[in-house]
Amino acid sequence: MSIHHSPPILPTVSRAFLQDWLTTLSNQCPPQRLSEILRQAGVSFTGTPRSRVTHDQFVRLYKLVVDETQDEMMGLWSRPIRPGALKHLCTSVRGASSLSAALFRFTSFWNLLLDDYQLTLESDGDLLRVELLPRGTPIPQRFGQVLLLKLTHGIASWLVGRELPLHDVGFIFPRPEFAQDYPILFPAPARFDQPFSSITFAGVQAEMPVSRSDSEMQDFLHRAPRDWIFTSLREHTLSLQIRELLLQAEQLDYRLNDAAQALNLTPRTLMRRLDAEGTSFQGIKDDLRRDIAIRDLTHGNKSIEAISQDIGFASAANFHRAFKRWTDATPGTYRQKMP
Questions:
Q1: Is 190:171 a contact under the CB 8 Å cutoff?
Q2: What is the pLDDT averaged over residues 186-193?
Q3: Which helix (H) or strand (E) holds 327?
Q4: Cys staple from 49: which of 16, 87, 140, 265, with CB 3.0 to 4.6 Å?
Q5: Is pLDDT at 334 greater than 90 in this prediction?
């Protein structure tokens, strides 16, 4: 079956991935107000960990929460990050003479604001690494650390005008059950149980020039966090490479042997490497079918039966069962929850 490309079929993230953030919000907002914010964003607070969140829902929720809390990091750190901080950060780094100078300004900026962590910039050959070092023994806020490291990547990529490749991203906390969501933000291997959290840029020139105009900065801020939080690079994670192959093939009967041949791997090697990433070829296909269904339920008026046929189900009943397994909601219920 053909896969339609407009609007784009973007990877969704799990509700479990956002749970640290949602828990923090529940401590900041009265329950009734929080329910209203989540309703406006199209995110169900009563959803189970298998619920999915789209890019649009994430961006809407981020903007609503920043407005509500008057904190650009939304209560994820020990002190509020007041509105306007991101604008001042962009103004500071875009005046730097090079990428390394910009990253040094980035770390210096956050070291003025954070009490419980210190950012440092290290270089090793063609690697540039920003480290998030704890001051004392704070309890790691998983989502806060993910957001700050992703901001590091997003700002640096914006400054040079292209998404910068990463060597790896490391986290001080143990591997979570939703680790398969991390490649949607970071185009690199994610390592857990590390001595500290960090993000390492690969194959970049420390003296690479940076140049952004004031109007470009205003556009970047207006679209925040969309331009800095979601990655478009697909080169470093095998599962996302396969997802792209499926999209390019425009058919969901694409086989593992086809993917292995396209990637110059044996089928056995491909299966082993996917297993090491905590996924499988069939799992990637199912995730893509899920995201196509979510895209079509969210945009337009295509019938549920037509959606089920487009993604290869023999009957609408089979699609209902699969969608309920993927998201803990029926297609009809999911569509009704959309704002």
A1: yes
A2: 90
A3: helix 316-327
A4: 16
A5: no
